[in-house]
Structures are given as C-alpha cells and as structure tokens.
Design brief:
The protein is an alpha+beta fold and 151 residues long. It has one domain (3-109). It contains 2 helices and 7 strands, in the order αβββαββββ. The longest helix has 18 residues, at 3-20. The radius of gyration is 15 Å and the shape is globular.
C-alpha cells in the first residue's frame, strides 16, 4: 500500500463515520499530513455540538466504531475536551476529539506505507469548503439537534 491508497482508505473511514451521524453535520476537510511513511486525513466539524449533546455524539461514534470491528484504545471523558481513540483491523488509527470552543475533529492516521504523492480528498465537504483558509474557523453552523441545550 502506498500513501495515496492509505489516504483513500482514511477518506473511506471518515466518510463512513460522518454518514452514521444523524441529523447530518456540516464539516470541512482539515489538512492532510504526510510523514516519513504515513499519511493522515482530518475532517473538522463546523456544526456547533453543545456540551449537552457531546455525550450522545461520542456514544454514536463509539458504538459505530465498535460495530465496525475497531478496537477502542482509550476514551477521554473530560467535559470540555472529550475524545475517543481507536484502531481499525488494518492498522489505521482513528480519533474523535473536541478542541477549543467545542470544535470536533475526526482524524485517521495510516500505518507505515510506501512513500508516494497524495492527492486532495475527493469527497466534497458537507458545508463551506474553507479551501485555502487556515486556520479553519471555529464551529459556526447551528443545528436544532446537535446545538441544543438540555432536553
């Protein structure tokens, strides 16, 4: 497997988890990173996920990853910066983490693969692309469900 094949696999992993979340979230592509023998892809969630909905959000993702055969390596239950870290059966590291202002990030890191060029992701973002914008803005899209307070 080379870096492009690994990047395509990472995109498939990211597409699958984002398709699982209902109602759909707005997201943009984060940076692609290349190491000496690995590649990572990131998706940045642009939908505001309220503190009251983060447990639900994390639960949906964790259940989906378990159902997909991923090994859950760690769960950080911090109220402000929760995260889930997992590994796929083919050795890809997968994470969901919350950063400042409640911004959620999905990231997939490949195992060591053969060095090659890596093209940009082909999946169109679900919302503004922010192409050429760095840093990507904080979450700025409200959802009646994901952004809601306590029921």
């Amino acid at each position: 497997m080379n870096m492009q094949v690994a990047a395509d696999r990472a995109d498939q992993i990211l597409d699958a988890v984002l398709e699982e979340l209902r109602p759909p979230l707005n997201w943009a592509h984060g940076p692609t990173s290349k190491g000496a023998c690995d590649v990572s892809r990131m998706r940045v969630v642009m939908t505001v996920v309220s503190v009251d909905r983060r447990g639900n959000f994390l639960g949906v993702v964790e259940r989906f990853w378990r159902k997909s055969g991923y090994h859950i390596k760690a769960v950080n239950k911090d109220l402000d910066f929760p995260a889930i870290y997992a590994r796929t059966s083919d050795g890809f590291g997968v994470s969901l983490s919350f950063g400042g202002k409640g911004q959620a990030f999905f990231e997939v890191d490949s195992p060591c693969v053969e060095k090659s060029e890596v093209a940009d992701p082909t999946t169109p973002p679900n919302g503004p692309s922010y192409e050429g914008v760095y840093p990507i803005p904080r979450p700025n899209i409200r959802s009646p469900f994901w952004s809601a307070g306590a029921p």
